[in-house]
Amino acid sequence: MRTLVTGGVRSGKSMVAEKLLAEMAPHGSATYVATGPSIDDPDWANRIAAHRDRRPTSWSTVETRDLADALEALTGPALIDCLGTWLTSALDELDVWEAPRESWQEALHQRTSAVVEAWARCPHDVVAVTNEVGWGVVPEHRSGRIFADELGRLNQDIARASDRVLLVVAGHVLPLSQP
Known about the structure:
Strand order of the largest sheet: 3-2-4-5-1-6-7
Strand content: 15-25%
Helix content: 40-55%
Shape: globular
Distance between the termini: 9 Å
């Protein structure tokens, strides 16, 4: 089963996803696919540490920016956390922030399509975490608009390829679609 867990920042979506994965991997063997960058930022390091501390020691961790290949290489249940940090890395690698859209849009589409296709083909139970975008004002800065637009598109594509989609609000789970 492919499950997409979406919600706002600090909504509790990662904890919900971790619980789902633990239920999918009753014998403890699972993979946590960390897509976030390793940056020199104490707050970010604390977030990563909190996520690591919550995970069972029986779970293996794969840190990668190549999410499509990571999905293809899975051998059992997995959690991808998160699509937003993966997308940010892809946008950074393509140096999109000041470049004209036509110079990077096709390359980004190829990357996001590869992730969606790998997600759709994955034969294992997988859970992906993502941030819900677009519930506020249109971002003032171009970088914010690019991120919101592209994550919104990616979320829609992954949701269509998922068996269920869950929205987490204030720690509460609202099923948007279920098998």
